Amino acid sequence: MTATKAPIEPPPTPRAVRRPGDRIFAGSAKGSGIFILLVLAGVAAFLISEALPALTAPSEDIPGGEGLASYIGPLVLGTLLGAVLALLVATPLAVGIALYITYYAPRRIAAVLGYVIDLLAAIPSVVYGFWGLAVVAPTLVPFHVWAADHLSWIPFFAGPASTSGRTMFTVGLVLAIMILPIISAISREVFSQAPALHREAALALGATRWEMIQMAVLPYGKSGVIAGAMLGLGRALGETMAVAIILSGGAGATVNLISNSNPSTIASNIALSFPEATGVGVNTLIASGLVLFLITLVVNMLARWVVNRRADFSGAN
Amino acid sequence: MSTATQSTLQASSPDQDPVRVEQRLPRFAPLGLFLAGIALGAGLSALTGFSVTSTIIYGVILGTLAVYVASRAVEGRRKATDRLVTSLVTTAFGIAMIPLVSLVYTVLDRGLARLDADFFQASMFRVVGEGGGAYHAILGTLIITALATAISVPIGLMTAIYLVEYGTGRLKKSITFFVDVMTGIPSIVAGLFSFALFTLLFGNQVRLGVMGAVALSVLMIPVVVRSCEEVLKLVPNELREAAYALGVPKWRTVVKVVLPTAIAGLGTGITLSIARVIGETAPLLITVGLITGTNFNPFDGRMATLPVFAYYQLTQPGTATQAFLDRAWTAALLLIILVMALNIVARLISRFFAPKTGR
């Protein structure tokens, strides 16, 4: 990004010709850039304009009948709950994977392994939903039962255990798998950029491989891991179809991860309710979408800010 | 576990005799110990009713422990920690493989049943039970994705050209930043945006194929910009300078020199961006909806798309439940195949259209 290779203009001749082709081309290139900014502003503007009726509507008209805040509140809780759980599971795993690919795997197959991990990102989210419902949820039922028996003193595992496995816990794990490639891709990029001199110096002083990583790689890659985790968080917050298919939601605000009654998430609630919604219901859903947009916007801007402090990598594929 | 330790350093800790020769485990000892741990895990698993899952879980834990303890006894604390981390990191990679293998296996297992000619030839028009297919949905997906590509590529490519060739100062910075931010817009929000836009234009309850294309474009444009920008940056400045020196106008330099040089990378990036949006479900669910018959006109009414088709087949099965589930899984399989094919095409493009370095 910093490598601005400003093409060197021809030296200004006394009569520099401004050709119309140049002007049109430069203008349309600049116009496209400005258009993108307008689109982003438009996303916010159109969402706000369509959400306004819900903000001004009497609270009885909002679905649920208790006003906008109490409709969106549990959804925000559910969204954060699933995404944070995903982040807690995915980050250590992703860092491990990134370290494995950059410093442990045999050189020849490391690129292939990286490509295999990236395949996880290529699978459409609706397919993750199918798989989560058909495989992950039933597989995790024994864990739900065990957690309800032994860990019920923790509010997150209060139980009673779900018999279908369609819980926030399952959703969190599936989301973790979905954001794994994002976090590990960015971690990989920073880890591989750790200065070779530092690494070799550490090894030359007799450090083991892990000590070398501790001394030279992790401090260097910390901000990249944080940025990757936040981008993953943004993806998990907005994930729709997998959650909509797996979760049996809509039960109001609860932090219980393993019972049949879970809060829904903003995105999945929109996907499930939108096709049948009418009138103020549509506006309410758009208002909740606006909240989601703002949350992800803040998370992404923070992540980008962290990334951009270290300018040599982008994070975008 | 990896036994190949590259470091052949004769490290000596300061608190020990400096001339002591470092004790090391024999080359294949860690692997052997790890396998022994797995075998023990299998035994333990057999005690509680044998299963592959518990064998792997017990085995990996016991194997890791065995290597750690042996290394600790022979090689000392630092080396043992190193081996422990090697085990953990490799296990992390192994854990990530489980979902990939399981997912691909499940989708293949359940999706192959209906992957027949009928699936590609029949629509769901007047189909309530068995039979039927996704002809209409496949075509819908192709039409809407093509439309989204037609919208996104010119805008994205021109923006990338602006950023690399023309952009300076704050406008360039803010475009770069907001394009990055845009990559994080949730797909459902893109759908809501398109819905809100078209509702304002055409009134309530409007559902059009083009709405889906607009929503997909919002997701696709930032990806196109980023990948094209990266590629254009790689074009050596000498080429541009050579063109200027010959008196070629800047815009012709870009069109005739820069773009042809970068064509392979541009093709790869655009193909990958198509792969990114072709499986998107949520925005299409709320903007395009679903119909059972074929509709080729994205400017007139609802259309069927493959992901939405799969979703509704799974979640709203009719009386013949199994037929609906089969179709859903086959559609999911087809989606994966489409995405993978696009990924492979992207790689082939970058291989075969790479600039010839004739020197």
Could you characterize what this model shows?
- Chain A has ten helices and no strands.
- Chain A is mostly helical.
- Chain A has a single domain, classed as MetI-like fold (Orthogonal Bundle), CATH 1.10.3720.10.
- In chain A, helix 2 crosses helix 5, helix 5 packs across helix 7 and helix 6 packs antiparallel against helix 7.
- The relative contact order of chain B is 0.11.
- The N terminus of chain B is likely disordered.
- With 359 residues, chain B is an all-alpha fold.
- Chain B folds into two domains: 84 residues, no CATH class; 234 residues, MetI-like fold (Orthogonal Bundle), CATH 1.10.3720.10.
- Chains A and B meet through helix 1, helix 2, helix 3, helix 4 and helix 5 of A and helix 3, helix 5, helix 6, helix 7 and helix 8 of B.
Low-confidence stretches of chain B: 1-13
- Which CATH class of chain A applies here? Mainly Alpha
In CATH terms, what is the architecture of chain A? Orthogonal Bundle
Strand content of chain A: under 5%
Map the helices and strands.
The complex is a heterodimer of chains A (317) and B (359).
Chain A: H1 20-56, H2 68-104, H3 107-122, H4 125-150, H5 168-193, H6 196-204, H7 209-238, H8 241-246, H9 266-273, H10 280-309
Chain B: H1 29-47, H2 52-75, H3 77-111, H4 117-121, H5 135-166, H6 169-182, H7 187-202, H8 209-234, H9 237-245, H10 250-278, H11 282-287, H12 306-315, H13 321-352
Helix pairs in contact in B: 1-2, 2-3, 3-13, 5-8, 5-10, 5-12, 7-8, 8-10, 9-10, 10-13, 12-13
Keywords:
heterodimer, A: 317 residues, mainly alpha, MetI-like fold, 10 helices, disordered C terminus, B: 359 residues, 2 domains, 13 helices, disordered N terminus
Brief account:
Chain A has 317 residues and is mostly helical. In chain A, 71% of the residues lie in helices and 0% in strands. The relative contact order of chain A is 0.15.
